[in-house]
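Bump. Still looking for Purine nucleoside phosphorylase LACC1 structure tokens.
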Amino acid sequence: MVEAVLIDLFSLPANLQNNIQGLLHSTLEVIEKCSSIHAPFVYVMCCQRQGSERKGDQEFLLPALRGFQSLKRRLEVVCAQTTAAALYTIKQRLDEKGLSIIKVILPTLRKDLMKVYIDHLFTAVYQFEFEDLQVAPDSESLQMSEHQHERQTLSSQDVALIQSEIQMYLESLPSLKGELTILRSSLIPDDIFLHGFTTRTGGISYIPTLSSCNLFSSSKRRDPQVVVKENLRRLANAAGFNPEAFHRVKVDHANAVCIMGKTEPDNYDGIVTNQKGVTLAAPGADCIPVLFADPVRRACGAAHSGWKGTLLGVSMATVNAMVSEYGCNMKDILVVLGPSVGPCCYKLPHESAKEFHRIDPKCVRLFDSASPYIDIRRATRILLERGGILPENIQDDSITDQKQNITFCTACHPEKFYSHFRDGTNFGTQIGFISIKD
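Sorry for the wait, here they are.
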């Protein structure tokens, strides 16, 4: 069942411009007639002429909007100077209401163009169907299948122009939830390495659980890749790294490690390099983003360590890759654990908790309960120390000096961090990042 209807009047062909009021009125009549049981939200997208005293087509359309009482509270006209701006505004309205099934009614010649905008600004969470804007639509038009027309393929230049328009619009948006903040460790020497752990502030993501500096997009979340890319660009500007030389682990919740410059595995939770100017990153939204630095051999790494990866030894696998690939000495490697869910909040089923209890009983609290509390940080430290990392070369939540503590509990600090455990499936993601300075 269609939840929302988008009527695209943004750039009508010349032969339809003179009949814009009639087109809209006829289209709304059909929507009202076919939606008596479940009235969808209706958004009319039109152009706001730059420098015009009028609000563009909005005032011109008002006569056509009158009289649709059943749609009145669900009807909104969105005017903007670009298609990207108008469509992104409508996306915000859809997300506010949790709507995902959208019918787009538009001129035939705009269909392929609109699909490119939608591919960039939306994710697989949303379902779109398209219908041609008819001069005299019949009463069944909302129910019939998509009209078949000969497709007009867009050129690569057309697509590039759309991408540029979207990028320029997103760059113009203000940062949300305060300034962009980066947490840094005093253990990693800043004359050799550039590094940090992000918080959730200073980006443009507006959905509450993703707001505002979300740094991961997936088919299950409402934040598209272009928004994440803009958040990353802002982070790169603030931190001082090149976003075009940015490599994030491909999370598999296991212990595979990618060696930069060699064949890249399909999935991996650790990554290492000795190349200057290449930024490595590991995500975390309860799982631990772990950073590794060897100031002697000038090598670094990043790992994503959730409970599965912790048990599989992903941190030591990353250390071992630095030793074998770059000749690092175990005693020189520095390891910093970033913000992650703490033992105050994190629970696992009893069977999984047994594995942590085997590492050290202190890694589990209320062991006899059905869902004991788990300390994945302590387990990570223990496994690193057993592997040969010096205790003083590990920074985690055992640091009692609050000025130096960067391993906060993500679930306990909703104003600072994202948390899958706390926020559910549509959660945001922060990262830990590191690179070797030129």
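The first strand starts at residue 4 and ends at 8.

Edit: fixed formatting.
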